[in-house]
């Protein structure tokens, strides 16, 4: 496991050679080495690069705390299981995340990415790394909302059961189609996408979960539809229940989106962004609740 971090000097585990370049120093007892993100670290033969054969997680770290770390590590382990990759060693990955956070210059929010690939072709040894970066600022989207189009995902709602080799529900590195869907949204003058199954059920966004409000009830589509169980959605439900709202993971027809009182996309770094327009039609926008929800999601909870 390689821990890649931004250039820093004089930190534990980093050594400079005669030319003043940091060498990779094994944290032998911790199971990873520290390296610079600005220097090459990965083989061009790595199957993560050549085939997108691997998994990842993006963890939000706010004021040094990662409130959803356990859920991210659990999903990472589940993705590894679905791809027949070795089970990630929780102690090694947790230590690497902590080191990445400690080594990065202080910023309000860090995006810490965990990656595990099938490794260099022919070796049978997976490659793993953790990289910490300052998170992109999504304040404008959180304050103003986004315009969304629905797109056909091309799979039925039961694809995870009928065709498990399609790896629905695993957070794989194969995000080319997610990126393509976002480009399609841009062509349609929208900011984002909600995927609909070929038989008409609401799924998820290319990089976010969907939250829908009907009166005092908040719903999200269930993970059994071959979508990712969102760590942010889980934290949002905890918050909403404290305020006495009902929360549910249920199948939703695309037509229910049109009748919803409000819709949000939820994800670790962007947090909660309200959908203010869906397929060209206005959607209710509760600025106060959106701000309260984001306040809760940004708060550093237990690490
Ligand atoms: N669904 C997909 C496809 C995603 O890529 C993501 C996050 O990247 C999510 C849902 C939301 O997950 P989380 O809230 O854990 O970031």
TrEMBL record:
Keywords: Lyase. Its EC number is 4.1.3.38. The keyword Transferase does not apply. Gene3D superfamilies: 3.30.470.10, D-amino Acid Aminotransferase, subunit A, domain 2. Coiled coil: none annotated. Belongs to the class-IV pyridoxal-phosphate-dependent aminotransferase family. This is Aminodeoxychorismate lyase.
């Amino acid at each position: 496991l390689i821990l890649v971090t931004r250039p820093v000097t004089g930190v534990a585990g980093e050594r400079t050679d005669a030319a003043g370049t940091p060498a990779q120093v094994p944290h032998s007892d911790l199971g990873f080495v520290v390296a610079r993100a600005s220097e090459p670290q990965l083989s061009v033969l790595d199957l993560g690069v050549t085939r997108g054969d691997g998994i990842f997680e993006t963890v939000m770290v706010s004021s040094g705390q990662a409130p959803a770390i356990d859920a991210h590590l659990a999903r990472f382990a589940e993705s590894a299981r679905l791809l027949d990759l070795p089970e990630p060693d929780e102690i090694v990955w947790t230590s690497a995340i902590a080191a990445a956070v400690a080594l990065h210059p202080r910023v309000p929010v860090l995006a810490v990415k965990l990656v595990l690939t099938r490794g260099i072709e022919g070796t049978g040894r997976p490659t793993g790394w953790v990289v910490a970066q300052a998170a992109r600022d999504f304040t404008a989207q959180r304050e103003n909302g986004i315009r969304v189009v629905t797109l056909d995902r091309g799979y039925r709602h039961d694809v995870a059961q009928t065709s498990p080799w399609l790896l629905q529900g695993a957070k794989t590195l194969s995000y080319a189609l997610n990126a393509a869907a976002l480009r399609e949204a841009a062509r349609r003058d929208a900011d984002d996408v909600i995927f609909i199954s070929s038989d008409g059920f609401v799924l998820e966004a290319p990089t976010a979960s969907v939250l829908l409000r009907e009166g005092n009830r908040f719903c999200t589509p269930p993970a059994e539809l071959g979508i990712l169980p969102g760590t942010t959605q889980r934290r949002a439900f905890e918050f909403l229940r404290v305020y006495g709202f009902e929360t549910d993971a249920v199948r939703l027809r695309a037509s229910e989106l049109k009748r919803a009182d409000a819709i949000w996309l939820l994800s670790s770094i962007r947090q909660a962004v309200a959908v203010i327009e869906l397929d060209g039609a206005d959607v209710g926008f509760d600025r106060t609740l959106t701000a309260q929800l984001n306040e809760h999601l940004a708060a550093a909870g237990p690490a």
